[in-house]
Amino acid sequence: MVPAHPQLMNPFSRAPAKREPPPTAAQLHQLYLDEVFRYVSRRLPRREDAEDVTAETFAAAFMALPKFRGEVEARLWLLGIARRKIAHFAPPKTRHRFRCGRRERIERAQLHRPKQIELP
User: Fold this and answer.
1) Which of 64, 73, 81, 96 is most buried, by the most CB atoms less than 10 A from its CB?
2) Are 44 and 50 in contact (CB under 8 A)?
3) CATH fold of 22-109
């Protein structure tokens, strides 16, 4: 008896996966605009900044679309572009927050705390 779906029977099979045709720019925008905006807005404090970075993300994706090979989901590809756009957009202090641990952040915050002046 031959199984209906041989790949389901052997999860370690190295058979090439079917590649879908690359999405068009309009499809990407329609399908993933809300998700990319939510991703960006959770990482940037101001809504205007999140809108700008989302627009830059889609502009970069549209420019790179001919190079998109479909090895990953289009959604993950867009979120990767958004992550890099956030890193370039955020000021260095914000970027530092993502690179170091909690103790280092506290120590740095204490170093940059303004001195309190006691008034007579």
Assistant:
1) 81
2) yes
3) Rna Polymerase Sigma Factor; Chain: A (1.10.1740)
Q: Express each pLDDT in 51-71 by its tens digit.
A: 999 999 999 999 999 998 888
User: pTM above the 0.90 mark?
Assistant: no
Residue 14, both tokens: 């190295």
Nearest to 32 by CA among 80, 66, 64: 80
Domain ranges in the chain are 22-109
Specify burial of residue 110 (Cβ count, 10 A radius: 0-12, 13-18, 19+). Answer: exposed
Amino acid at 54: T
Contact by Cβ (8 Å): 84, 41: no
Query: 47-64 vs 74-89: helix axis angle to the nearest 10?
Result: 130
Structure tokens belonging to residue 8: 């389901």
Task: For residue 52, give both structure tokens.
Answer: 């700008």
4: number of Cβ within 10 Å: 7
